[in-house]
C-alpha cells in the first residue's frame, strides 16, 4: 500500500506546498492520517484511501508520537 508519510509534501491547487508534520508515529511508519497537521497550520481532513484503519482500545494508550498536538 502506498500512502503519504510525515515529512512528505502536499500540493494545493494553486501550486503552493506544505509539509506533513504529524502522523501515526514511528512504530506505524509515520503514515499521514486524517487529523495529521501540515507545516502551514492546515489539517488533513479527508483522503481517497479507505482501507487502512487504526483501532484505539479503551484503557490502552496509543504510542506517544501518534498525531501529537503541535503548539502554534
Question: What can you tell me about this protein's structure?
Answer:
By secondary structure, this protein is mostly loops. It has one domain (1-62). Helices cover 0% and strands 8% of the residues. Strands 1-2 form a two-stranded antiparallel sheet. A hairpin with a 5-residue loop joins β1 (9-11) and β2. It is globular, with a radius of gyration of 13 Å.
Count of individual beta strands = 2
User: So what's the oligomer here?
Assistant: single chain
How many individual domains?
Answer: 1
- Radius of gyration, Cα only, in angstroms? 13 Å
Overall geometry comes to globular
How much of the residues is beta strand, in percent?
5-15%
Class inferred from helices and paired strands: little secondary structure
Ends apart, CA distance between termini: 32 Å
| Biggest β-sheet description | 2 strands, antiparallel
Overall average residue pLDDT: 84
List keywords for this structure.
single chain, 72 residues, little secondary structure, 2 strands
Amino acid at each position: 500500500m502506498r500512502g503519504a508519510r510525515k515529512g512528505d509534501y502536499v500540493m494545493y491547487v494553486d501550486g503552493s506546498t506544505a509539509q506533513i508534520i504529524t502522523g501515526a508515529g514511528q512504530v506505524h511508519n509515520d503514515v499521514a492520517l486524517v487529523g495529521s497537521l501540515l507545516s502551514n497550520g492546515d489539517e488533513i481532513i479527508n483522503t481517497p484511501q479507505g482501507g487502512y484503519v487504526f483501532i484505539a482500545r479503551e484503557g490502552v494508550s496509543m504510542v506517544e508520537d501518534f498525531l501529537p498536538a503541535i503548539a502554534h
